[in-house]
Amino acid sequence: MTNGPWPFLILEDWQDTLATLHMWTQIVGKIRMATTPLVNHWWNVPLYVSARGLTTSAMNYQDRVFEIEFDFIDHKLVIECSDGAVKILALQPESVADFYERVIAALEGLDIHVKIWPMPVEVPEPIRFDEDETHASYDDEYANRFWRALVNIDECFKEFRSRFIGKVSPVHFWWGSFDHAVTRFSGRTAPPRKGADKITVEAYSHEAISHGFWPGGNGVEAAFYSYTAPEPTGLPESSIEPRAAFYSKDMKEFLLPYEAVRNSPSPETALMDFLQSTYEAGANLAKWDRKALERPEAIRSATR
After folding, report:
1. DSSP secondary-structure letter at 149?
2. H/E run at residue 172
3. Which of 28, 31, 118, 292 is least surrounded, with the fewest CB atoms within 10 Å of its CB?
4. CB 153: neighbour CB atoms within 10 A?
5. Is the pLDDT of residue 303 over 50?
6. Measured distance CA(22)–CA(96) in Å, rounded
7. Reading across the β-sheet that carries 172-174, which strands appear in turn?
8. How many other CB atoms are found less than 10 A from the CB of residue 236?
9. Separation CA 278–CA 225 (nearest Å)
């Protein structure tokens, strides 16, 4: 199970491109959010790994369907419509403000008029898209590496997802927090979070165990994560795999450095061990009904 070598992702080498891509994906993601009905836990807003990059999937607009895809092979943003109309924009070093202007103009040229709130979310010190001249980097080699890493991760996450027969999210890319994730649910409602905004209330309405990949930022290298919400007593002390994984008291999550996985004899095995062992730790302590939620062949002993 692999789609090729797991590429280097050294934050220092591409952090400016990462920050710019984060803003570009937020612009496209907000277009998807504006044109789709709310699905539980905001599942209508993420992007998806495609054969060439990241895509919105099909979106309805009046009597047509359109899709927006980041092509990280030929480095283009492609907007395709069900009536055959197409707009193609080059992905190149340019400011978020210029990218935003070009995307909106391209949509209007296709007679698609979508209004979005031009303020980034889930980032410190956000700058309006139409005023952001700070983020203006695009390294096509690293954009392609990022996508190739996501392709391998996406495959592992989908295999992991297939083991669960309870309520489970799609495998999707959150443009707000800029992470690729899949989330399992126990089926029970969760207690309300104090001070939660409407986004958090919807996202954490039910007990969940989430796994994901974050490509890095703010001086922190790329890593996989796992958290259980609400967190059961004793979770930080749980034994998990592989050895490079650890519990972060600051993040209240299990973390596994991407480099530890990439350098493993079998990256897929290392990642699957992390996903399974952290899930088991959370599900066992939170007393999930694992027999009802998992395929029989996927259930393993809690003692390893």
Report:
1. H
2. strand 172-174
3. 292
4. 24
5. no
6. 10
7. 172-174, 179-189, 206-214, 223-229, 253-257, 246-248
8. 14
9. 9
| Cβ atoms 283, 238 nearer than 8 A | no
Closest to 146 in 3D by CA, of 46, 33, 27, 52: 52
CA distances from 39 to 17, 33, 44, 154, 200 (A): 31, 10, 5, 21, 14
Integer Cα distance of 58 and 64 in angstroms: 10
pLDDT tens sequence across 234-259? 999 999 999 999 999 999 999 999 99
Scan for tokens 């998990």, then name that residue.
240
Listed residue (115, 69, 91) closest to 21, CA to CA: 91
Interatomic CA distance for residues 246 and 167, integer angstroms: 27
The length of the chain in residues reads 304
Single-letter amino acid code for the residue at 65: V
Q: What are phi and psi of 104, to 5 degrees?
A: -65, -40
Alpha-carbon distance of 109 to 103, in angstroms, equals: 10
pTM for the complete prediction? 0.94
Asked if 135 and 95 count as a contact pair (C-beta separation under 8 A), the reply is yes
Structure tokens at 177: 């927090």
Instruction: Give the ranges where the chain is alpha helix by DSSP (H).
Output: 11-35, 96-109, 140-162, 198-203, 258-262, 267-285, 290-293
pLDDT tens, position by position, 2-33: 568 999 999 999 999 999 999 999 999 999 99
β-pairing, 223-229 vs 246-248, is: unpaired
Question: 3-state DSSP helix/strand/coil percent for the chain, to nearest 5?
Answer: 35, 25, 40
| Structure-token pair, residue 124 | 């410190």
